[in-house]
Amino acid sequence: MLEKLWPFGRNRVRKAFEEALEKAFKDVEVLEPLSELSEHEDHYLLRVEVPGLGPENLEVRLEGDQLVIEGEKREEKRTKHLSEIIYGRVYRAYLLPKDAKKEGITARLAKGVLEVKIPREKHPPEPPVRIPVEEA
């Protein structure tokens, strides 16, 4: 049915669509990696997917109350027949939880997943504070 509506045929439509997608994704300047943060009794565990990045082109640092993960996935120059991999700068900043310790943070990269272990400070739980409601 598509051939009846579009005079170029299915292969040309598909090629045009793929070229449009390729052009759209080439303009991507910063890639935000997928991540998850889990809470444990004595630490937080931040897992970030960074496939194709090694320790040599990945940086983990603290900037104030933020944990920053930055790197670059560089494209190798070669003849390609198909390219669906997105290359570019990887950047993500995470606000540290209030009870996170800035000392003792460790990072480990395995199988394309960066694991950042963030120690927690032990504080006694604060009791709730009741605020009286006045009638106007």
Main attributes?
alpha+beta; Immunoglobulin-like; four-stranded antiparallel sheet; 15% helix; HSP20-like_chaperone; HSP21-like
Distance between the termini: 68 Å
- How many alpha or pi helices? 2
For the record, the CATH architecture of the domain at 28-119 stands as Sandwich
The string of secondary-structure elements, in order, is: HHEEEEEEEE
Rough outline: elongated
Report low-confidence residues grouped into runs of 5 or more. none
* Fraction of residues in helix: 10-25%
Strand order of the largest sheet: 1-6-5-4
Rg from Cα: 23 Å
Q: What is the β-strand count?
A: 8
CATH fold-type name of the domain at 28-119:
Immunoglobulin-like
The helix-and-strand class reads alpha+beta
Query: Tell me, what is the CATH class of the domain at 28-119?
Result: Mainly Beta
**Beta-strand residue fraction:** 35-45%
Give the oligomeric state of the chains in this entry, treating copies of one chain as homo and distinct chains as hetero: single chain
How is the biggest beta sheet arranged? 4 strands, mixed
Rounded average pLDDT: 85
SSE blueprint and pairings:
Layout: H1 2-5, H2 10-26, E1 30-31, E2 35-39, E3 43-49, E4 58-63, E5 66-73, E6 88-95, E7 106-110, E8 113-119
Parallel strand pairs: 1-6
Antiparallel strand pairs: 2-3, 3-8, 4-5, 5-6, 7-8
